[in-house]
Amino acid sequence: YVWPRPNSRQAPDPRFLCQTSSLDFLISQNFDFNKLIKDGISYLRPMEVEKLRSMTMERHEYKRSLNSQNNTPEQIIAIPQEQEGFIQEVTEKLQAFIKNEDEQKFEIDRCNAFQRRLVYQTAKQNFPTLGLSGVTRPGGERVISVSKDVDALQSFVQQQEQNELSDVEDAFGFSKVIKMISESKKLVVGHNMVLDICHTLNQFCAPLPLEYGDFKEMTSTVFPNILDTKLMANTIPFKDEIYNSSLNELLRTVSEKPYEMLTIKPSKAGYGYTETDEKYHEAGYDAYITGLCLISMHKRLCKLCNNRIVSVDAESTMLKPFLNKLYLMKVADIPYMNLGAADMYPDRDHVFHLVIPKEWKTQDVVLLFSSIGGVNVFWIDDTSVFVGLRDKTFANTVLQTIQSNNVYTISTYKDYVLREEAEKYANNSQTDNDANSSASVSGGLNTPKSSPFRVDKRELHTGRSAVQNTANQTGITPMLEKKTFEDGIQAALAAKSKESADPAPKRNAAKVGESKSGAKMGERKNGAKKRDGAESGGGGGAEKRPVSPDSSKTTGVKRSRSVVEDKAFEEPDWE
What we know:
Structural class: alpha+beta
Strand content: 5-15%
Mean pLDDT: 77
Number of strands: 14
Radius of gyration: 33 Å
Shape: extended
Helix content: 25-40%
């Protein structure tokens, strides 16, 4: 268990956010929340440790300056009238302390930060032979320690400062493990590990970058050798022998002939796992059986290629085709993310971008394309989707059959990408202009800086897309029956034809320039909620496994979803 508890008032104090369904799932898997919070190993990112170290050293320097005899008149604080009684009381205590030869040390407590500052100042002016130092009691109370032995006090202060710096290094915590794994350049193995990589980088390394290319570069830098057993199981030659690539089924398959499962015994009794424990979803057990599956699959691969069985590491020639590729779920035509090279970009001429009323659901989009054939619907946000034809031969007839109107807008995938690139370029130019304008208005005045640990991620997680619908949008919701939908469309088209004398501009985006047609798939707008690809309409293909309620029943579920794991895609090169 890892838990980022702040080790000081200056350390980051992150918020903890979790879905109730996730908590229910963890409880069902016997997750120990008390152990998580009470005994979880703390951690900080490298950049946070560096800032905390810098702040600690600045605080030490400030405290030394309070004891310095070289303060300028500007640094001397006038004692407020309401504090004169407090300072008089402290002065009397210090005088009595000097006269008492038996007492070598005492503490001044029950004072706030401003009062402590006044005590330091008064002691320097009136009692230069005494040494003062701030001390934190076990309960967290800050007091001032006064000593007649200045040299001993300075030695104590130096040791205290060293301990505080050591605590900062210890606060790095579990991130040290990730750092050592990164520096070792060893093979990092996981099963369907995209989210594992994202969380690991975000929690222990640095906030995830906004750009996809930067994320790939960051991942390759931190973990130069990654292997995903989910990808292996869905690629030749394994996909002809492994029919279910979920982790528990994969373990069962590679434990039987023609595979050979390695027998591993814990080095210490009572520790570790065995294959029969079946503690799925417990991180240690999942990692353990993932390693077992890799070893078994590697041995099988060596036999198929008539090669001598060698150790499983990043240098194995058998694993090269799978190295640094992360399996992608619910992406119909891109099987994996290639961290070491450019991703595969398939032909998207059969994909269209649709801007629709927010009341529409997946069935509405399928119904719109029913005259063309079966489609796959991929939600971008509440008002825009990608629609992919299952039969690509009808791609040229879509814009002729379905035309934009005041209810919805349709454009090709290529036009959508060009439009997004133009909008992004315009926004960047506007941002630069605004920054230059702000610099001119400010006139170089210093402004307060926010906390060095504050990273506002609300735009990443709760932001909404700025897609604008047409002003005359009717909000038609064609979910009652097909005839209602057709009547609504015909009425909208009739209204449009009557206004032919002053037609509304079509929302089909004009081409703003040429770009490579292999542009990256559907950049999501900042903060937009990505919808799972919904499979509906049309026939054929492999059997799907729906995860949403029966659409024929009224359940209150807004959208249907489905998961498709068995995808056909290009295989890695094999020698």
